[in-house]
Task: structure prediction
Amino acid sequence: MILFPAIDLKDGQCVRLVHGDMNQATVFNDSPAAQARLFEDQGFQYLHVVDLNGAFAGESINGGAVQAIIGAVKFPVQLGGGIRTMAHIHAWLDKGISRVILGTIAVRDPALVRAAAQQYPGRIAVGIDARAGTVAVEGWAQTSHLSVIELAQRFEGAGVAAIIYTDIDRDGILAGINWDATLKLAQATTIPVIASGGLASIADIRTLADPKYRVLEGAISGRALYDGRIDSREALALLKAAA
Result:
C-alpha cells in the first residue's frame, strides 16, 4: 500500500486547489524541488506530481519545475497534466519520470493510451477525475458523458499500470476519501486503483490500512500533509504495519 504525497504545480509553485478551481489556490511552497526533497526525507517511496497549468493548456507549462523535482530526488515520480501525445509521453519518460498519467486523452483518444501502455509497460497510468460519478476532462473544466467504471473498463487488458481516481467534489476540502465509489471502481476492474481527493486525517489512513481496502494500490494525499493534519511518519508506520 503506497501513500503518495502530492505536488500540484501552478505558476511554478506548490499549491492546493479547492474543487479543482484555479482561482482558489493556496501556495504551500515556492520551491517544488525543496518540497519533493522534504517528502523523500520523510520516508515516502513515490511522488505524485500534477502540472495544473498544463492540464488546462494541453501541454507542459511547469516543465522547469518538474525537471527540478526529478533532479532533486531519487524516489520515483509520476506526472500528470497536459500529457496528450506520444511525443509528450516519450519526452517525460526519457527525462526520468517513472510513470505518466493520461487523463483527458484517455477519453479523447483511448487508442493512444493502449499504444503507449504497450510501448512502455508499467509506465502508463490513467487518471479518472469525476464529478458526481461522471468523468471530467480538460483540467476538470469540462464534463464528458462517460461513467467512471465505463472509462476504466475500456482499458482492461491494455497494460495500463494504474488508475488514479479523483473525486473532484472532495478534492482539496479535507472531506475524506469517497471510499464507496473508490472500492466500487477497484472491484470493477483488474487495473490497480489509487484513491485521490479528500484524504483528510489519520483516520483515513487507518481506513486505508483495513484489509477491506487492500485491493487498492494506495492513496494520494495533498493538503492534509501540508497543513499537518496527517503526520507523515505515523501514516507511513500504520501502512507498513498493515502490509
